Structure formats: C-alpha cells, structure tokens
C-alpha cells in the first residue's frame, strides 16, 4: 500500500488490488429491468403492484394511473419542444392578465353547522366562484425533521408539482438534518416558479418543549402552533400540510377556499374521521376536549394576519396550560391543542369538505368522503401503519401514492407559461455556459454533461456516526448504480468503519433500493453508511460527479477512495486507522510489495490509478470525464501535480470482484467517436494542467506521448 504527503500534512495511501476469481457464483440484480413498465422487486417483504395479491380491479386502477402519467410526460415533452423553439425570443407577460376560476366545493362556514357530519361527494357552488389568479403565488408550510420525513416531503412535493399551475413558495420548518437534505434537493432540482425558505426548527423547541407529548411525531409535532411567530410577518395566509399527504388535484383549488372565509373564521380544517375525540374507542379512553368529532390538523388553512391580531399565541398557550393540568400530556400533538381552542371558540373554524383530507387511519369514516375516485382531493396517511392501513379502497390509494413515489422528478421541471420566474443566478450562469458550447462539435454531448445539474437526495436512509476523537478515522468512499447493488452487503461485512456512497438511480430504482436495504439485516444493522442518491439524467454515467458527491459528505479526517466492485480485506479499516504513515504515495511495485514489511515510496507514472487514502480536503475529481476512461487517472495526476507523495502500505489489499461489463465500457469498445472524444478530453485536461501548474506539468504530456 502507498502513503503520500505534501509538506508534512497531506497523506495518501493506495491499496494494492488483487484480481481473483471467487469460488462462489455471484447473482447480479439488474434492477433496470422492467416488466410492463413496472420495476422488478428486490425484496420479498412487500407485495408489488404486479403481485398475485393485487386484485384485477386494483390492477386496472394502477394501469389507469400509469396511462395518466404517460400522458403528462408526453405533454412535458411537447412543452420542452415549445420552449426550445421559443428560445431567444422574449414574449412579454403581464401579471394578473389571465386568471382561472375554480369551482369550489361546499364547506360549512357557520359555527352552528360545524358538527353536522362529514360532507359526502364533490358538490359545486352556484353563482360567482372564487378566483385564483394565474400567477398568484401559493404559500405552503411543512414541518419536517430527520431522514425519513425528508423522503416523505419529496413525495408530497411531487404530487403538488404534478397538478400545480401556479408559482409555489414552500416554507419548511426543518431541523439541521432535513434542511441539509432538502436544501440540496431543491437547489439541484431547479424547478421553475418554486421558492423554498427554511426556518430553524431547533430554535423553536423552547417554544413548545414545555408541552409533554406522547405522539410519535415528538416535539416537532407541536411546531404548527407557533407558525404565526415563525413565518414572515407580511405573510397573510398559508396552507399547512403534514408530510404524509398526497395531492390528487391542483393545490390552487384549496388556496381558493380562503375566499370563502367569513367573519372571524381563521382556520380551515376537515372534521376528524375517526371516533377518537368521541371518547368511545376503549374503556377509560379520555381524549382532549373537542367540538363533536373534532378536527384533523393534517391539512390546515391559516389566515395568519387575523390570527396575529386575535393574539393566537396567547390563546393557544392559555388553553394548553389549563388542559394540561388535568390531561398531563397531549396524545395527538398539536391537534389536541387546536381542538381544545376550537371547543371554546367555534367561530374560528371554516369546516372544509372532507375530501380535502381523506384520513386513512384504521376505523375511520373516510369512505363517506367520496362517491368516485374523481372526488378525491387530498389523501392523508395518518396511521402509524402508513401504506399497510386497512381501508376498502386502500389498493387504489396505495397505487396513487406509489405513482408519485416513483415518478421521474425531472419531468416536473416544466415552465409555467405566462408566469415569469424569479431570476436565479445559478440557472442563468448554467444557461450562459451551455450557450457557449458548439452544438456542431462531435463531442458536444460529452462537454454538455459536465454542466448537467443532477437532482441529488443526500442521506436517503438514516445516518448516525461520530468520528473518533484521535483524528485517525477513515471513511470508505465509492459510487455505484443499480447493477452493483449486490456488492453492498459484502463491503459492509468487510469494512466496519463509516462509508459514503453515491448511487446513480432513477426515481423508481431509488424505491427498489430502499426496499432492498430495508429487507437486509446487514444494511439495516449499519447506521454509519451514508447513501446519497444522484438521480439519472442524460446518456452518460457521471462517475466523477458521483465520487465528488460522496467525498463532499465525508465527516472523518481521511477518505479511502475506492470502487464498489473492490472488496477490502478484513481488518483494513482498523489497519488504516492505526497504521503510522510516513510521508509520501505512486505506481505500485508488486514484487516489492509481496515481501515488504514497512511502507515504501513510489513515483507517479502514466495511467496510474491506485485506490488511495487521502485527507478530506483533497482535490475533487474532474467532471469532464464521464462514463469509461481516465476518470481516476486524471485525479491521481492532479494529486501528483499538487506535490502529494505516494507511499505503498504493506499488508493492505483489496480484491477485485468479477462483474458484468458496464454499459459505458461497452460503448467505449464499440463506438469510435466515443474513443475520439475521450482522447480530445484528455488533451484538453493536460492543457489545463499546464496552465495551472506550469513547467511542472510538462512531465504528464511527455509521459502520455511515450506510453
């Protein structure tokens, strides 16, 4: 093995790789295979939509949904074609010139009708209809904390974006974990006419931490109570959503309901569809006070300006303090306190029709909310069982949810015609860079890939690790696609230290990976493996982008830069942590390595690409190299140019596991133009090296010419 240093501070170790043919046969899971457009399951734990357990009716509903999705995809392609034709032209649009009228359903606006029962069906008002202007911004607030809730938010947002026709402004009350994940996701998603602001949930804990809460949502389940203080003072109204919500219609229809509020109505809520607040679920069941069945707070319309004038903060605090003297804690988090306030002040509520919050917990009256699937507006998975809840139509609801779960989020980047988007510096710079490329260049697609922004979901699964305090800790860094998924368990068994992985997947494949991981005792037993999903886009495998994503989110002082099909020897993690490296690291002398007992220095040579351990602040990989060829070679060359020294470490090695040829290496071997473009990119990289490092970089050009 090798060790490298620049000055006395930068160390790098490259592991020797041994090619071996294992006696056992590896089964490769090609998750890119589909049957009838449906992903093949990797886990037997959960029935898939094409399982025999699905009824014929459910299958028809699923197929109907898929047809709908394909129609929208075709519409998106048409929109893209129109955009490309319109490029360079500057059509002028005036805000407010075009408006759309939504037919709104009846709600009970009078306090005397508040407990008249659940509204069935989808009725429309006669006469003048409320109006949402075409370019009016709709504000949505969501409380989100942790890794799993961040995944739920993505599905919710997809369902909203799928139907929306208006600009959206998301206000996310998030802890540090969710903010890191979702900020990166939205920055790389780059959806037009969508703005996202974050509010530090951890700073709000003191506002509600005095309230004991038995609900599984914990302290974050109480934070909707303080939105009047948290959100901007000039924000007048907002739709508040739980993370387990799925939209089946345009959210503008719900936004338009604000126009129906009268008098002192400041809260729009759907009646609770279970018997919880009736107090008859079991013997000695004692719920918080509520008006009739009470109200569910999974979907709330808040008139913030009026609530502030009513001193909402003081109102809910006094109510909570009084009730806690007898109840001691909340059972349903903020919902209990909202209901206690409404019990005393029924005039505050505008009761929404129940199809705006069809609650899919066990033993609810949700089936009375709709006569047909076209009546559905919002589905709320408000049971801890989530998709395994009991409901007569649960298969349809599950299929609708799964459709958005696996829907290609890149298709939701469509423009809103007639609604000018806010200027985005990153987007403008990207367009400028792309416009400078020559589309007639035979290597145009290679060059364009360098500027492609891939939607990225960091920490897709729960991650928990604190680096050792002795500053010797090492994280294994690698990247993979679905066809290498079977390597994960073996690597986790061989490497007990932290791991940072970037996975190149489609939205559907990401869900297959989730099911696979959740069904694996080995993977679920490891919380120090960070899985970062980089979503597929374009025709090349962005290998160096993936490596950079995985490197960027390493939390230890050192990184072991590996590949997914190389299996570390047992004990390599501890060996790398406690081995005393001298300065240095380059091409491995295998004959010397076989007998070496101490580290030794080697020099860089052309096409050298060892697997190395480096400090976390090492240079990134060059993104111009995609697919097969020179992606690691260029990185090692950059390290050498920055005066890293290469040291081989004895008694440390990896095993190269056999695998099917990648799609990109097949293209390299069969496509002459691919090879020509790779050669061109290599020459341009060497020219860039000469500009950056001057005379010292001459040896790379000389070595290449002699190789």
Automatic annotation (TrEMBL):
<keyword id="KW-0511">Multifunctional enzyme</keyword>
<feature type="transmembrane region" description="Helical">
    <location>
        <begin position="12"/>
        <end position="31"/>
    </location>
</feature>
<dbReference type="Pfam" id="PF13896">
    <property type="entry name" value="Glyco_transf_49"/>
</dbReference>
<feature type="region of interest" description="Disordered">
    <location>
        <begin position="81"/>
        <end position="116"/>
    </location>
</feature>
<dbReference type="GO" id="GO:0008194">
    <property type="term" value="F:UDP-glycosyltransferase activity"/>
</dbReference>
<dbReference type="InterPro" id="IPR051292">
    <property type="entry name" value="Xyl/GlcA_transferase"/>
</dbReference>
<keyword id="KW-1133">Transmembrane helix</keyword>
<keyword id="KW-0472">Membrane</keyword>
<keyword id="KW-0812">Transmembrane</keyword>
<keyword id="KW-0325">Glycoprotein</keyword>
<comment type="similarity">
    <text>In the C-terminal section; belongs to the glycosyltransferase 49 family.</text>
</comment>
<keyword id="KW-0333">Golgi apparatus</keyword>
<dbReference type="InterPro" id="IPR029044">
    <property type="entry name" value="Nucleotide-diphossugar_trans"/>
</dbReference>
<protein>
    <submittedName>
        <fullName>LARGE xylosyl- and glucuronyltransferase 1</fullName>
    </submittedName>
</protein>
<dbReference type="Pfam" id="PF01501">
    <property type="entry name" value="Glyco_transf_8"/>
</dbReference>
<comment type="similarity">
    <text>In the N-terminal section; belongs to the glycosyltransferase 8 family.</text>
</comment>
<feature type="region of interest" description="Disordered">
    <location>
        <begin position="43"/>
        <end position="65"/>
    </location>
</feature>
<dbReference type="GO" id="GO:0000139">
    <property type="term" value="C:Golgi membrane"/>
</dbReference>
<keyword id="KW-0735">Signal-anchor</keyword>
<dbReference type="InterPro" id="IPR002495">
    <property type="entry name" value="Glyco_trans_8"/>
</dbReference>
